[in-house]
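Cross-posted from the bioinformatics board.
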Amino acid sequence: MFEQIAFYLFSVLTAGLFLVTVLSRNVLYAMSSLAAGMVLISGFFFLLGADFLGVVQLVVYVGAVMALYAFGMMFFDATRDIKENNTSSKVVFLLSGGIAVLLVVIFAAPILGNSIEATYPPQEGLTNPESIGLVLFTKYLVPFEVAALMLLVAMVGGMILAGKKMDQSLTVTDEEMNIPQKDGDK
Amino acid sequence: MMESLVYIALFTPLVSALFAGLFGMSQRQVFVGIVSSMLLFVSFIASALLAYHVATTGNSVSVTLMDWIVVANLSIPFGFVVDHVSVTMMVVVTLVSTVVHIYSIGYMDHDKSFNRFFSYLSAFVFSMMVLVMSDNFAGLFIGWEGVGVCSWLLIGFWYHKADAPREKNPSISPSWAANEAFIMNRIADLGMLIGLFILFWHTGSLQYDVVFAQIPELPSIVLTLAAIALFIGAMGKSAQFPLHTWLTDAMEGPTPVSALIHAATMVTAGVFLVIRAYPLFELTPEVSYFIAALGTFVAFFAASMALVNRDLKRIIAFSTLSQLGYMFAAAGLGAYWIALFHLAAHAFFKALLFLGGGNVMHAMHDELDIFKMGGLKKYMKWTHVYMFLASLSLAGIPIFAGFFSKDAIIETAFNEGTLVLWSILVLTAGMTAFYSFRQIFLTFWGDERHNIEHPHEMYKFALVAMSPLALLAVIAGWFKNDFNSFVINLLPNYEMSEHTHHLVWYLGAIVLAFALAGIILAWVKYGKGLKRNEKVENRFVYKLLANQYYIPQIYEALISKPYAELSKFLWKKVDMRIVDAIVDGIANFIYTTGDEMRKMQTGNLSHYLNWMAGGAVFLLIFAGLLSMLG
Amino acid sequence: MIGLNHYLIISGLLFAIGLVGVIRRRNLLMLFFATEIMLNAANIAFAAASYYYNDLAGQMFAFFIIAIAASEVAVGLGLLILIYKKHGTLDLDDLATMKG
């Protein structure tokens, strides 16, 4: 009973928050609702017994990624509303609606196989983080190390890409918008 | 020892062709001609030694060079056999071609493609040797096609000559004539191929001995079909009616070519095929009788056209056609050895006649109209003697070669009781004598109707080279009995019946009377000079004969023109409108599709994302359908 | 009782919402946000599958997806800043320079 209430609550809230993210004209609103949605998604993880994943979600997404976005936003003009020519809603409705309907139909239909054999069943008597740790550092050790390396590369890359000319302000005034910034080209 | 002789006889012409081919593009080099002639002479010596070996020991020599085609049940070795029949052909071919090679050094003296000519000529001899020496039908067919190609190359040797209208020159141009010869032969070769397929289908082999051993057990319908199909091939090569028109048109080629290919060797390949495959034709009497009848008809038909022709080389070509008819008559009546004997004798005197004609052409600066010659005997003594001897031989005057061989054929026709054929052949013998002496008298005797100051005789060495042919044209017939006992080791003997034996002197006298009557008639009409009679020349029969029964025109109107029209229709309508249109349509479709699709490339990432989402929709539908169906 | 299908359906819906953002928005930053939504939707599906099939592989996938998303954000944001420095805008309509 509790599970059902929680599921539907989380579902409605995440869907609503993400809709705000997708439809909002204001970057700040979009980011805030995104962060809130991320938090609620970790709720799904806890519901599914994936405690470790929930925590990681909170730490990485809500902690790191959103902070990164927040810092990144500082380079852009976050206060101004975004002016853009949105794709016509007909196309959006057709494509996204199509995919949504298709996914729902496919997932709702009883076509999922039940004969899937578990390759890594959690061991009895272990908590979720313990069993995750066991699998991660035995079977998934190499991908894990590669992922670590990838994160390192991404970190260095991000620093190099964004770190050039940090002393210059990127928040340009309206008059400067049309003038190509010669310094930035080099 | 004998094996190496076989290889020498076979491959020296090839060596000669390759050697001359090396200099094909360069300036005239006399030594090319000399080396080629010497190589051919070597081949002749080897053939003669082989003939001696076969004659003394009575054994044939078989060699297998290598396995050629081995596929499943089909096994065709590159094998050659030298037996009584093929060695006869080998000696004849190499002898005539040696003479022709030497003669060509003189005849082609001023031609800038001198070296190329020798290359082709030797290549022809090689193909001919493959044809006669092969011990299976496949090798025979290779040689058969090889001589066809060489014939095409040599008829069209002066390919740069422009087309002349048919009124002026009935065969239009060398390249036209070459194509005509080649295409007509292709039509006939299809028949030959079908014949080979039938034989292979039923016997599982193409080796002569294997095939002929199995032939008596085959159903007669199969044998008849195979015989007909093979004979169609022979008809093409030997220019029998209705595929005869190419032979006279082939006279567009250089005269040595006419002497070698279109008189002595290649055109007799059809006769050779019938003789080679005699076990087959013996078992199909209807086909054989048809061959005899057709041969007789062609003998008469060609002789009738020769009666009024004015072209020096064409007259000889018609007489070749006529003599081929005689050979087929003999072969069709079962007298294979007589056909082979006439083939050999004919090769000698006809090659001599052609080479003499070449001398006359040389002296007359390529003029061929015998109405514009005359009185040449005082300028060209030796040529006159040679051609006179050859004509006597051709006319069948006793002691000359033609008498023995042709008379035997006519006797055979009598012996078989086919009196209609006999009477036509006798009549044709008279016509032969008339037209050959008409030619001699108009060319060498009577008034001088040419306007050339001093017609010059051919080079001495060429005349000397012709002497073996002249000698053989006279004496070849004396060895008839020796030849008979030699060749019947392989071919069935043909003996005249008692009844014929009694009458043989009367029969000979009748033929001789006709021949002499022909000569005398020619003398009366043309001996003193040309007296043209407008009335005679305007007669329907005269015109019909002079225009070769209008057969070239009929072929052109009924076959060439409709075929050209059909081709044009297919090209303009079917090819351009349908085939090309489809191809163009595909190209246009792809082009326009590409052009339209190019508009997708807006450079705007958002648009691309839309397309990607569209693709995702498509893939999802696909996956859903798959999971539902599977 | 909440079953696997429920989770998969909510995951699909969230994915579609992300897709709406990807298709509709022209601002690169907003596209990044939409991409995060789609990644998270996929994570829910993985976690649900892991739970209902009693298999840790699903959680592993989700874990690596989170790692990749973090790297993507780091590099992506760096690139965004470069683009902004160069063009002064993040609007795709203004960045359409690769016109075919």
